[in-house]
Design brief:
Blueprint: E1 2-6, H1 10-21, E2 25-29, H2 33-52, H3 58-67, E3 68-69, E4 81-84, H4 90-103, E5 109-112, H5 119-123, E6 132-137, E7 146-151, H6 157-169, E8 173-178, H7 185-201, H8 207-218, H9 224-231, H10 233-247, H11 256-263, E9 276-279, E10 282-286
Parallel strand pairs: 1-2, 1-4, 2-3, 4-5, 5-6, 7-8
Antiparallel strand pairs: 6-7, 9-10
Helix pairs in contact: 7-9, 7-10, 10-11
This protein binds 3-hydroxybutanoyl-coenzyme A (3HC).
Length: about 290
């Protein structure tokens, strides 16, 4: 199967990786061919580390990378499936889907990895709403075993069945969600992360104690503030804005500190600092601006 992934950030690269690992051709797109190549190089470097640790063979890495192609946009015209993972912004996603709708063969399924945006609205930007569907992966994509399939008002049963089968063939458990903000998982998870920021903002506990609280008290694999850093504080803010607007309840209002962190450029792991500071992807301590003198 030929799959094209638009957006080569954490999610896009991870999605391209899992498809390529299963023998599918994965076209990787970013803002330019040069930028996509940089993301492919980054993926190659991270896979090389797995070879050094004895977690993957060199042959498996070479085969995987041979399936990841960086090409001009026109190469996706005959893709069977396109997954967009671009900025979590309705206008940006609609513009891209509309362009892809004009570029691709009529059978191509257009999927979105959106965290919270309405699939029905995104589908309306195309002439094939029955072939538009949510394929929501979880970070880190190669590790997390879930794909949430989201159906819009006009998504066909055939499209749902195809992506459901595909998700299962990738070794993932699939769940089916109706098109409501946040679908199943993020509707529960992201308000909890926002509340953790609120708890910090109210000085109820320190960054480390908020995280330790949920790890040791509830057995979460990582604390909510560390997880927010991994997801991206800009994404958490955008999703909470969508919840607040669409669901209309003040319980979804983004925490004030979350807005300040994003305004200050602290976006989490990807910017080198969020609630924690990172060096080459490794957490090295709490962000000093959050430590009381
Ligand atoms: N990419 C690829 N592989 C990764 C990885 C990454 N970013 N991070 C960790 N791994 C792999 C490691 O290589 C290791 O695999 P191996 O045993 O084959 O070498 C395995 O995952 C376990 O990693 P570690 O031992 O280094 O670390 P942990 O055991 O602490 O696990 C974790 C790390 C998997 C990230 C774990 O802390 C976890 O599950 N955290 C919660 C993640 C979560 O909640 N994700 C959902 C976020 S919400 C979302 O994505 C939706 C979006 O719309 C917002």
């Amino acid at each position: 199967m030929k799959v094209a992934v638009f957006g080569a950030g954490t999610m896009g690269s991870g999605i391209a990786q899992v498809f390529a690992a299963k023998g599918h051709t994965a076209l990787m797109y970013a803002s330019s061919v040069a930028s996509a190549q940089k993301h492919k190089d980054k993926l190659a470097a991270s896979l090389q580390k797995r070879v050094e640790k004895g977690k993957m063979t060199q042959e498996a890495v070479d085969a995987l990378l041979a399936n990841v192609l960086v090409e001009e946009k026109s190469a996706c015209a005959d893709a069977d499936l396109i997954i967009e993972c671009v900025k979590e912004d309705m206008a940006t996603k609609k513009e891209l889907l509309n362009e892809l709708d004009g570029l691709c063969k009529p059978e191509t399924i257009l999927a979105s990895n959106t965290s919270s945006i309405s699939m029905t609205s995104l589908a309306a930007a195309t002439s094939r709403p029955e072939k538009v569907v949510g394929m929501h992966f979880f970070s880190p994509v190669p590790v997390m075993s879930l794909v949430e399939i989201v159906y819009g008002l006009r998504t066909s049963k055939e499209t749902i069945d195809i992506v459901d089968e595909l998700g299962k063939s990738m070794g993932k458990r699939t769940i089916l969600a109706k098109d409501k903000p946040g679908f199943i998982v993020n509707r529960m998870l992201l308000p909890m992360l926002n509340e953790a920021v609120q708890v910090l903002d109210e000085d109820i506990g320190t960054v480390e104690d908020v995280d330790e609280g949920m790890m040791r008290g509830c057995n979460h694999p990582m604390g909510p503030l560390a997880l927010a850093d991994m997801i991206g504080l800009d994404i958490l803010l955008e999703v909470m804005e969508t919840f607040y607007l669409d669901l209309g309840d003040t319980k979804y209002r983004p925490a004030h500190l979350l807005r300040k962190m994003v305004s200050a450029g602290y976006l989490g792991r990807k910017s080198g600092a969020g609630f924690y500071v990172y060096d080459e992807g490794k957490k090295i301590g709490v962000n000093p601006v959050l430590v009381k003198a």
